[in-house]
Every structure is written in C-alpha cells, then in structure tokens.
Amino acid sequence: MKEQSMTCRFCDRECHIKVSLDEAGQPVSVRPEHETGTVSCPTGLHVLELLRNPKRVTRPLRRVGPKGGGNWEEISWEEAYQIAAEGLGRVLREKGPEGLLLINGFHKPLQGAVFERFANVLGAPNRLGAGNMCHQAQSQSFVDTFGFRADRRITAETRTVVLWGSNPSNTMRWVQRDIAAMKRAGGKLIVVDPLPTRMTELADLWLPIRPGADLALALGWMNLILEEGWEDRELLEKWGSGLEEVRTACRPYTLEYTAASTGLPPEQIRQAGEWLACSKPGIIFGGNALDHNWDSYQKGRAIAILLALTGNVDQPGAAVLPGLPADPVHSPRLTAADRMSPEQRRRMCGWDTALLDTARQTSGQEMLRGIEDGRLRAGWAMGADPVVMWADSCRTAQVLGKLDFFMVQDFFLTPTAQMADLVLPVATYLEYENVFFEADGAVQYRPALVTDTQAKSDMEIICGIAGRLGFQEEFWPDMERFWDFLLESRGITMAELRRVGRLGGGTVSVTPVSQGYREQGFPTEDRKIHLSLPRLREKGVDAVPVWRPLPGPDTVWPDLCTNYKSTGFFHSAGRQMPGQRALQPEPVAYVSADIAVREGLTDGDWVRVSTEVGEVRQSVRVLREMASGTISLSIGWWDPDAGTLEEGLAACCNNLTSDRKLLGREIQAFSCRGIPSRVEKISGK
Ligand SMILES: Nc1nc2c(c(=O)[nH]1)N[C@H]1C(S)=C(S)[C@@H](COP(=O)(O)OP(=O)(O)OC[C@H]3O[C@@H](n4cnc5c(=O)[nH]c(N)nc54)[C@H](O)[C@@H]3O)O[C@H]1N2
Ligand SMILES: Nc1nc2c(c(=O)[nH]1)N[C@H]1C(S)=C(S)[C@@H](COP(=O)(O)OP(=O)(O)OC[C@H]3O[C@@H](n4cnc5c(=O)[nH]c(N)nc54)[C@H](O)[C@@H]3O)O[C@H]1N2
Ligand code: SF4
Ligand SMILES: [Mo]
C-alpha cells in the first residue's frame, strides 16, 4: 500500500505523519512518521475519524431563528462570503476596525499568521489568542529577568529536570521522550504536581504540592540555596542585580514554613533543592499549571530567579536562547506586522488594565466587557472555542450572543459555534494542498489527499473574506498565488515544488547554543540579570516575588479544585471522535482520599463541584496519593449530543472559573488552579 508523508496542522508541534492510501488514492490509515523522530498524538492520529465524522459541518451554515436555537440552513460559499462581508463590513463602516473581535485560540502557526495579517491589514486591534491562558506569564517574566525568552530544551547535557505543573506524558510526548533519555543517562527528575501521573512514576522525587502554593515552594528553594551557599557566585557577582532583595524576600521561607505552606515534607523540599542547585546543568520546565493563577507572572519570575541563582542559564542543557524558526510562516512579511500602528494597537480592549504594558494580550473578560458596553459589535472565531475554554462558560456564551454579527470557522458545531450567525466549514490538512517549512531549511510539498469536500482551508477563507471587504491587494486571489508568495524567499514556485516534492534542507541549525551572555552580559538594558525589578514597583508590581496565599479553604468552600489535560483530547476538541473518546469516555475527576472518605465516594460515582461562579458534574476516580483536600477536573468537556447548550456544558470545568476575580495583575493571567470549591456526591450524572 502506498504511503504519503503529511504534516499535521492542528497544533504548533506540526508533527509529520504517514498516511496509507488505497488503490484509489484515498487515505485508509495514519501512523506517526517515526523516521523523522516526531511524536504524534491521538488528535493527529484520529484525523480520519474527523474527516468522515457524521457530526462534521460540511457546508456553510446560516442561523435560522433565534441565536443559540440550534436551527441552521445550508448555504453556498458565495452566500456565506456575502453574509460575512456584510456582517463585518457594517461594523467596519460604523465603528471602524476597533469594533471587530477576532479570536484565534491556541497557536496554529500558518492559519494564525494569515489571521493575524487580516487583523493587521485592517488595523483591528482586538485580536485575542490564548496567551493569557497559556504561556504568556512565564515568557514575559523570563524576558523581564534575562532580556530573552529562555527555552527549556532538555538535551544530552541536562542532569536535572524540575517538571513543575506539567504532565508531558499526556500533553507533550516529545518532552516525555527527552526526559526518559535524560533519566537513562543518569539524570535526576523532580516532579511538582498534586496528581500522580506517568511522570511522577518516572521521577526520582515527586512533590505532591497543594494547588496554588507553587510560589511558596519557589521561595523556599531560593532561601535554601542561599542559606546553604549553593548559589553560582561568579555569575551573580558579575551580572546579578538585586540579590540582597531576593535574600530578604525569601528569608521567612524556612524548610518548616515552606512545608507547612505547600503540604510537602521538608526533607523532600531540601533534597530536590539540592539536586537543582548542585547537579548541573539543570532546567525548570514550568507547565501550564503555573500559567493559571493570579500570581502566574511572579511564579514565572521565581523560576527565572531560581535558574539565575543556580547558574542554570545560557549553558547547553540549561535555559538557553531558543533557535528561532527563520521561515516565511514566522515572518512579519506574512503577518504584515508593520501595518498596525502602535496607537491603533493600544485601542485593544483592556490594553491598560494589566499592570505591565509589555503584555500584548489581555483576557477574554476584557473582550466580553467590550461587547457589553458596545465597543465590539462583530466577531469572528477561527480555531477557538471560547465558550468552553475561557473563564465562566455560561457568561461567555451569553455575551458572545449579544454581538450584532458573529461567525465561527470550525469543523463542528461547538458550543461557541452554537452562538454564531454563520458557521464556516474548515478543511483538515488532508484536504488542501500545502507547504511545510522544515526547521533545517527544507521545504516540503504536501498534496491534497481528499478533494471531494466543500470545506476550505483557513487561509482560503480568510483571503475570500478579506477580498470581499475590499482588501484584495493585500491578500491573494487564489491559493496558488498565496503559496508562491510564501515560497518566494526560497526561489521556487508552487508549480515547481509540486513537481520536485522537496527542496533543500540541512542548511539551518536550530539547536539552542550558549550566546556568551555569561561573559558579555545579558540582553537587558544594563546587561544585568534582574533578580529584582525595582522599575516595576511604581506600577504596583512586586519587585521580587511575594507569595499571597489564595483565599480558603473554609467551611463554605472546603476543597481546592484544579484541572488537567487528558491524553486523548486537544482542549475542547475530540469528543466526537470514537477513537479519542475511547481514551476517556466520560469526564474524569480525580479526588483525594480525604474528600472521598468525607463524601463516601468510590470510582465511578458522580460528583457536583461548585464554586461562587457555578457548578460542574464529573465522574470520580479516587487517588490515594493525591495532595489532600484537592479535586482535579478534566478540562474541555462538552457533550456534542446534548439537547441544549447548558446541558452540553454540564461537565465543563470553566463553569467554575471567573476571570473577574483572581485575575493576574501584571498580565491578565487566568485563574483555574487551586480555586476554593465544594465537592458533593450526587446520584448519577
Ligand atoms: N493531549 C493534549 N495535549 C496538549 C493539549 C491538550 O489539550 N491535550 N494542550 C496543549 C497546550 S495548548 C498546552 S498549553 C500544553 C499544556 O501542557 P501541561 O503543561 O502538561 O498542562 P496541564 O495538563 O494543563 O497541567 C499539567 C499538570 O499540572 C498539574 N497541576 C494542576 N494544578 C497544579 C498546581 O496548582 N500546581 C502544580 N505544580 N501542578 C498542578 C496537573 O495535575 C497536571 O498533571 O499541552 C499541549 N498539549
Ligand atoms: N479551565 C481551563 N481552561 C483553559 C485551560 C485549562 O487548562 N483549564 N487551558 C488553556 C489553554 S493552555 C489554552 S491554549 C486555551 C485553548 O483555547 P482554544 O484554542 O479556544 O481551545 P480549543 O479547544 O483548542 O479550540 C480549538 C477549536 O478549533 C477547532 N480547530 C482545530 N484545528 C483547527 C483548524 O486548523 N482550523 C480551524 N478553523 N479550527 C480548528 C477545534 O475543533 C476546536 O473547536 O484554553 C485555555 N483554557
Ligand atoms: S495535534 Fe498532535 S499530531 Fe497534530 S501536530 Fe499537534 S501534537 Fe502533533
Ligand atoms: Mo495552551
């Protein structure tokens, strides 16, 4: 059977997969392309179930009847483009580009870059990705501390990894693979996670921390390292600025105090701190759990400070400057970055509400406020499901429903799409001709394997709409010319690439290397590592991290609720695919032993979890080893078979969250890990 190499475009990992084709050239199965060392996940590997899914949106849909009523009419693409151009065009005329809300969710490089171009060319500042819910707290704090966004690549040199609030065995198998290799070479793995996982099984030391207490642990480690004299004196004397302030800030964090604050045994805190400081080079791999609290920016700062104290920066095997992809997808030429003026960018809703003006992205909450007060009148969500993934799901749905015009570009009638006026069916990467730029400089041609489809690629849809809004000049009349534009810098046309299949390669190295910062200074304004950031004090930001415990637990909200990402699903996506669903057929909440005893819970029971904001129902698995007093919910759940939107969202953990409270102050980091809640047993679902 013939096999064709393809590139999955569902997330920024862009794995290569092999697709087997039958005699008629139709795809029949999919497997990871092991030869290139990429590690595909269940989402990519179940693409054929998505392709032929009975629930898939296959034609453009126009709403009939009231919003959210669930009645749709199939229309042609020409009609769909007209409706889109009218809906967006009216707001452009009446309010200007500031009246548009453009939502692109988790980063998909190619689709995201063309969507960003659309925003930049129009001058529409209200474009929101997942930054405040995803990586931005940590990346910004690294930039503020070191002057660059340090990468966390585990290499052959790495001797210690602190895996902190991340579970790559579910979410990033390439990281799991690198950690396993490090372990085989004799390195040490420390895992900080309230939940036992495959990574905690692999760990030399597992610290089952109480959710939300991570900053206390970081301060405890700083104090231990400085008390023991394990710090990298040479680096700190030469380039460290603010060491005494850090020393003072972390002094109260004795082992005993840190243990009491985090729920961890003092001897384990000490052992892990010693490995981090003394078994070098090491890295701290801070995961998504650290991005998800009001103090996320300061947690990122604390990690950066720990890396500086231990000298684990700008060394192979430690935190280094990433090798940046220099390809035409990641280029300002494609995103038309220079088209949006700084003044226009500042018109973004919520630009000024975060304390740090370096933050380019605000929260969904700011956008919802913009809709409520009439600043935002039309919306377009591409590859995003804000109703499920932003805080406060029911409110998000309700407020999106107030837009004069809302369109959604997706594979399915998601909870977000259910609030739309127009739904546009998007093609999978098997259904359109495609180009992939390899990290080593090679260019790969990817054919369309399935052509009997009405769905169109995101790029084609964006160009179609931009053209009808009068921006033909800045977009492309057909995809051939789009690909030619992308390929121009490589001196080849799409027609030629189609013929040769692959071009070049082996010319670029993206392996991160030391930049010589330890000798010449860091890329900050004074070449120092900013252990303390006094310039932030005037903005109301702590110059060195201060831990302020979360409210609760108390008698009304006795439990701490957090959440996790499961292997089989990509956030809200995948509930319609039988193969992915088999990996987690129902929403699974992990519950600690003490809560299980209190509520009389056994595996398979259902619980209701409530917070001040709302409630959610999931099925219980009791984990004896889990941090006491905690429950961890499976994220992204909604039921594609439910009769109403509310029923469909019964298991959605963002029913419990609100970013009106406990929102990060420095950047608007989203709060969903360690929220005061109440767990109760219920009979049945
Ligand atoms: N299968 C799959 N893969 C994915 C994704 C997906 O949805 N599904 N999403 C992708 C995206 S966008 C991202 S950002 C990454 C994120 O990937 P990860 O960083 O792995 O994120 P999570 O699974 O959200 O959280 C990781 C761990 O944090 C733990 N945790 C919960 N609360 C706390 C706490 O308060 N403190 C500490 N220390 N730990 C806590 C959880 O138990 C969980 O094991 O994954 C990517 N990969
Ligand atoms: N409580 C809680 N909330 C969270 C998180 C958490 O851990 N807990 N995680 C946060 C994180 S890290 C992130 S990154 C965000 C993610 O937030 P979102 O990106 O909004 O979430 P997804 O579910 O990935 O939404 C993707 C939608 O796009 C569709 N889709 C997939 N591929 C394509 C494509 O190529 N084109 C188009 N047009 N559509 C596509 C899918 O079908 C799905 O409906 O959520 C955040 N929200
Ligand atoms: S969705 Fe999975 S298979 Fe596709 S690129 Fe991302 S990690 Fe790879
Ligand atoms: Mo994310």
What share of residues is helical?
25-40%
Annotation, overall tally of beta strands: 25
Strand fraction equals 15-25%
Helical stretch count? 27
Q: What class would the helix/strand composition place it in?
A: alpha/beta
Biggest β-sheet description: 7 strands, mixed
Keyphrases for this structure?
single chain; 685 residues; alpha/beta; 27 helices; globular; binds ligand MGD; binds iron/sulfur cluster; binds molybdenum atom
Describe this structure in words.
- This protein has 685 residues and is an alpha/beta fold.
- The chain contains 27 helices and 25 strands.
- The mean pLDDT is 94.
- Helix 9 crosses helix 11.
- It is globular, with a radius of gyration of 25 Å.
- Strand 2 and strand 3 form a beta hairpin.
- It binds ligand MGD (2 copies), iron/sulfur cluster (SF4) and molybdenum atom.
- The site of molybdenum atom has 4 residues, from loops.
Task: Sum this structure up briefly.
This protein is an alpha/beta fold and 685 residues long.
Topology (elements, then pairings):
Elements: E1 2-7, E2 16-21, E3 27-32, H1 42-45, H2 47-51, E4 61-63, E5 72-74, H3 77-95, E6 100-104, H4 109-122, E7 127-128, H5 136-146, E8 160-164, H6 168-171, H7 173-184, E9 188-192, H8 198-202, E10 205-207, H9 214-228, H10 233-239, E11 240-241, H11 243-250, H12 255-262, H13 266-278, E12 282-286, H14 288-291, H15 296-309, H16 332-335, H17 342-345, H18 364-372, E13 378-382, H19 386-389, H20 393-400, E14 405-410, E15 422-425, E16 434-437, E17 443-446, H21 458-468, H22 479-487, H23 494-500, E18 502-503, H24 517-520, E19 529-530, E20 559-564, H25 578-583, E21 588-592, H26 593-599, E22 606-610, E23 615-623, E24 630-634, H27 645-648, E25 675-682
Parallel strand pairs: 6-7, 6-13, 8-9, 8-12, 9-10, 11-19, 13-14, 14-15, 20-24, 21-23
Antiparallel strand pairs: 1-2, 2-3, 4-5, 4-15, 16-17, 17-18, 20-25, 21-24, 22-23, 22-25
Bound molecules: ligand MGD (2 copies), iron/sulfur cluster and molybdenum atom.
